[in-house]
Amino acid sequence: MKLHSEIKSHNYLPGKTMIVLTLVFSMIALTSSMKYKSDFHMSDTADGVKKDSIESVKAFMKVYEVLMSPRCMNCHPAGDAPLQGDDNHVHTMNVVRGPDGTGLYAAKCSNCHQPTNVPGLHTPPGNPKWQLPPANMKMVFQGKSPRQLALQIMNYNLNGHRNKAQLLEHSKDTLVKVAWNMGEGRTPPPMSYSAFVNVWNEWINKGGYAPKQ
Amino acid sequence: MISLNVNQKTYQVDVDPNMPLLWVIRDIIGLTGTKYGCGVAQCGACTVHLNGEAVRSCVTKVSRAEGQKIVTIEGLSANNDHPVQRAWQEIDVPQCGYCHSGQIMSAAVLLRENPNPTDQDIDEAMSGNICRCGTYLRIRKAIHIAAEMQKTKSNTGQTKNSVSPVKI
Predict the structure, then answer these.
(1) CATH code for the domain defined by B2-75
(2) Which of A93, A110, A122 sits opposite B127 (nearest CB)?
């Protein structure tokens, strides 16, 4: 009887352990699934749009032209100083990115850049959110090949932690739109804003593929 | 009518909301310590504090400053004894002096955010303030002196205005 009881007890513990293990594995699986969903992930169809690597890459090449235009690239520099002008020269006044991208000390972006454009030539363009990407997520455009830039934008850990929905939404951000309203004397990007949104969405919805080079 | 808080005093001004803050400060309120330099945020002579930040008042519409806290050079300290002002006097920083109210307002923000600035910190903070007399070396030296003065409590002499932690 005693022996039987011990055996029973012995059998009971692995059973309990199994339940606990099952629960743990389920939680791990659930967590992984949630993480997977939060990462950028392409399904076979997105909003009824089928994945198409050729069309996706074609769309990205148009996106690339916009992102490499001075209106976008000047605030995505390779260094820690923003760029200015159609010739991408380094911003005057020795201004720097700062930890959060809004400048430093008495040289913060919004000290000169107002919520709206200042009229006239050579005046600061305006936006309520004017800033560079932060120091811990620089999101550099300058010097990137089409492939490098596409892969960077599609990488959740390099794109400002944006998933697919957030990337699509990003084209509506006021700091993206401002590229088409930069005040006097600044050449706008090489296509209209609505054309840009179309190719941006097409690139992502058709798979977010990167060109070979 | 626009309500402005300048140097802890409230003003009701009847002006176009698009009027530059600098115009209101100088021509309407009559505080002429802040100077007009370039009019396009390139020189820093017009720097004032807006909620503690060193904004260029020549391009800042008065509507942006409505209901906010503005501090001009006249209100930086109670008795012109902010450490930066004391340091400026100690080594006679200005030559013509035109840019120096802006220089001092910028330096005050630097020292609030970084009490021990290096030469590089000073360059990064102050390069937007241009001095046509080229007093840059004395400006840098005075900021180091002010940093030392700031460490001694009895030398601070600052009003609440100059150390406002509020962000825009």
Answers:
(1) 3.10.20.30
(2) A93
